[in-house]
Amino acid sequence: MDKYISNQSIEQQLEKYRAWQKAHPEWELYCDIKDPDSLYIQWVELPKKERRLWEKMHKEDAKECFEEFGTKRCKVENMVLSEDLKLYDILDWPPGFCMSVYKTGDKK
Questions:
Q1: 10 Å Cβ neighbour count for 95?
Q2: Beta partners for 79?
Q3: pLDDT tens digit at each of 108 positions of the chain
Q4: pTM of the full predicted structure?
Q5: Within this chain, do residues 64 and 91 fall inside the same structural domain, yes or no?
């Protein structure tokens, strides 16, 4: 068996993540967010200078090009919750079953 494959089922791990989330209500699990795209900068939210650069490079297709291959910054803090319930930077994704989490505010 691969050393990174957990003995727990996905359902069991999700239960652990949900328990963690209840103890940390300012964080939301990715699977619970109704519109995850809303957490990322959208075309209308780009600074004018950045939008003009896209328009200069892609003319009338600028918005579609941004939507297709632009790097959209997250508006809120986001991390990776590992199997052992530790938070990691999104760029340091650990091996195993993990969940993206977003700090969307205190939900108490």
A1: 11
A2: 89, 101
A3: 445 545 668 888 999 999 999 999 999 999 999 999 999 999 999 999 999 999 999 999 999 999 999 989 999 999 999 999 999 999 999 988 899 999 998 654
A4: 0.78
A5: no
